[in-house]
Amino acid sequence: MTALLSLSGVTAFYGAIQALKGVELNVNPGEIVTLIGANGAGKSTLMMTICGNPRARDGRIVYDGADITRVPTHEIMRQGIAQSPEGRRIFPRMSVYENLLMGAHGRDGGEAAETMEQVFALFPRLKERTAQRGGTLSGGEQQMLAIGRALMSRPRLLLLDEPSLGLAPLVVRQIFGAIRDLNRSTGLTVLLVEQNAFQALRLAHRGYVLVNGAITMAGAAADLLARPEIRAAYLEGGH
Amino acid sequence: MSRGATALPAILRDAGLSALVAFGLFAVMIGLKTDAGPTSLVLTPRPWAVVLAVAAVFFGRLAMLLWRLWRPAGVPAPRRITAGFARAGRYIAPVVLAVALTLPLYAGRYWLDLGILVLTYVMLGWGLNIVVGLAGLLDLGYVAFYAVGAYSYALLAQDLGLGFWTCLPLAGILAACWGVMLGFPVLRLRGDYLAIVTLAFGEIIRVVILNWTTLTGGPNGISGIPRPTLFGLTFSAGGGPGSFADFFGIEPNLTQRVAFLYYVILGLALLTNWVSLRLRRLPLGRAWEALREDEIACRSLGINVTITKLTAFAMGAMFGGFAGAFFATRQAFISPESFTFIESAMVLAIVVLGGLGSQLGVAMAALIMIGGSEMFRELAEYRMLIFGLALVMMMVLRPRGLVSGRTPSVSLGERHEIAPDLVAQGRG
Ligand SMILES: Nc1ncnc2c1ncn2[C@@H]1O[C@H](COP(=O)(O)OP(=O)(O)OP(=O)(O)O)[C@@H](O)[C@H]1O
Ligand SMILES: [Mg+2]
User: Fold this and answer.
1) What tens digit of pLDDT does each residue of B308-362 get?
2) What ipTM goes with this model?
3) Rounded Cα gap, residues B316 and B318, in angstroms
């Protein structure tokens, strides 16, 4: 099977600071892949680098058979990749409805209306609050909005950066359940960054561990869950 | 009331401090008066004036703090005002529009001239609102585009003999080009840094106009700029063949031209309003607003941030250019003096006072600021004082502008309703 997304030898810098040190990573079509790692390991940087901001200095990023390493961000995002960035970043003064429409930017209106219904079916809470300002939603609702907004572009590959950040366990289960449903029903491919390693590895098919900007471990999610060094570093005291 | 008893010393201290600051400010400014003496200026001390001013500040501050302390419980005052504005807003806009449309029917020359002035600033305010209010790009050099528009028309009319209606779009396009030129270097800047660069840009344009004497006439400006025509009919005071009065067989009269100019600027201002309202409903306008809210999120949604910013600058600049061309044709004379920083500041104040992003608020703010300051002209130098005071009061009472709050530009209509069976599943 050819990978939908593959990174080889990718490095990225913030000025003189090297945040990614030759990352190797593959995501196959229809898979949920999770990326776990400590704070500052470079997980968010990796997600952003896939989108071309910051741009990879060395290495190659191939998506759907095409090299996107040097493609401008706004064009990458039009080729079927969508991102729900770290910290949600919804538009606080715009309504839920407008936020969702922004996700379908540059797309046909009729198609957007149809996609929005699918998003509402996934997160009925949003449907009840279409006129409410994004900034006044609860944290969990904001996260649903961020994911819904990303889905509005009908992506093939969804990049989710810490969707469980600051949420109650029940809401986290809801959101993870929604991701699993989407993956099963539509075959959506997901790359998921998580601090909540236990739940992420239970949701995902495969996992990668990022340490100091480089991948140190990779494998089937169930295998990673069983490894003692993972349990010690990322699951200690968790469950 | 125990609350009052414990707070009283603090209140007295606060009022005392205010009085001290007032003394520092007024001791020399009010306390010493210059009079013409027999040979030179002499200083006359006025201690009582200082005492009065300081006492006024002390007791004024005291009264304000006490009012805050003992304000009746219940809805806080600003909230009530906001609600009132929201309710009144629905009626204010049509009434203001009706008055504006019919003004030339009953108002005299003075009021029409004032109306033209106010409408020019309304238009500038709406134009700048696209850049500052919608796209959130703080532009302190908006007058540059006003100047580009004015000089474009003046030069095109003088050197190529083109008419107003031909030059108007050209002036807009040229100003838009300058908007893009400003946009490119400031693409990566935000907030304070953007403000400084735009401020400098405004000054550069003015200094170039001032010094490029061969083209612009430098400080002497350009005079004899032709007036606009109505489908080829002129508005000359003497009547004569080809004039508006001659064609309709009525007495030539200067008010006709003023009324015509009034309708031109009213039309231009309404065009600006219509375009901004329309754009807000389109993906481009929504992208501007999203950009104001969160640039990184915009990038992650695949919005071309470069294009979005440049179009905001270009669109705002274009309306500034239109207003400039109108200014040139109305005054028939322009010079660099009309395009100083204070104009940019004035327009920005109108936008901020009006409540960033609110069309009605901007119009009201222009009416109050420009109309108000013209009407207090007799007060001479105290005018600026009142003006400053009014600004401070406004910002204290309504920190988010006259008409704050933003209504969504689009909302979910009936046709987006989803089937009940879809809603039911997965709810929990
Ligand atoms: N804009 C930036 N400028 C400079 N350094 C940055 C920038 N963004 C991130 N870094 C640095 O790059 C490294 C990786 O950051 P990154 O945000 O990718 O970590 P992360 O794995 O997502 O961490 P977390 O789990 O806390 O979100 C960190 O050392 C961080 O300080
Ligand atoms: Mg992160």
Assistant:
1) 999 999 999 999 999 999 999 999 899 999 999 988 988 998 888 887 778 888 9
2) 0.88
3) 5
CA A53 distance to own-chain centroid? 15
DSSP A21-49: EEEEEEE-TT-EEEEE--TTSSHHHHHHH
CB contact under 8 A, B412 and A130: yes
CA distance A218 to A198: 15
Taking every pair of C-alpha atoms in chain B, what is the biggest distance, in angstroms? Answer: 96
From the CA of A126, how many Å to the nearest CA of chain B? 11
With tokens 């009953």, the residue in question is: B106
Residue with tokens 């079916």: A121
Long-range Cβ pairs for the range B271-275 (8 Å, 24+): B271/B322, B272/B123, B272/B126, B272/B127, B272/B319, B272/B322, B273/B126, B273/B359, B275/B315, B275/B319
Ligand 2 is an ion; its neighbours by CB within 5 Å are A 44, 86
The topology (CATH level 3) of A1-80+159-239 is Rossmann fold (3.40.50)
Rounded Cα distance, A137 and B387, in Å: 40
Any idea of the CA torsion for A213, A217, A220, A225, to the nearest 10 degrees?
-100
Q: Given an 8 Å threshold on Cβ–Cβ distance, is A97 in contact with B411? A: yes
Q: Which residues have C-beta atoms less than 6 Å from ligand 1? A: A 14, 17, 19, 37, 39-45, 86, 195
Residue A54 preceded by cis peptide, ω within 30: yes
From chain A, pick out residues whose CB is under 8 angstroms from the CB of B410.
97-98, 101
| Mean pLDDT computed over every residue of chain B | 82
Rounded to the nearest angstrom, the minimum Cα separation between B93 and chain A is 23
Per mean pLDDT, which range of A105-119, B355-369, B382-396 is the poorest? B382-396
Domain assignments of chain B as residue spans, ordered by start: 3-73, 95-403
Contact B303 A74 (CB under 8 A): yes
Q: Does A222 touch chain B (CB under 8 A)?
A: no
Min Cα separation B300/chain A (Å): 6
Interface test with B, best of A46, A68, A84, A91 (most B CBs within 10 A): A91
Who contacts B185 (Cβ-Cβ below 8 Å, separation ≥6)? Answer: B197
Alpha-carbon torsion B52, B56, B58, B63, what sign?
Answer: positive
- Domain residues of chain A, as ranges? 1-80+159-239, 92-154
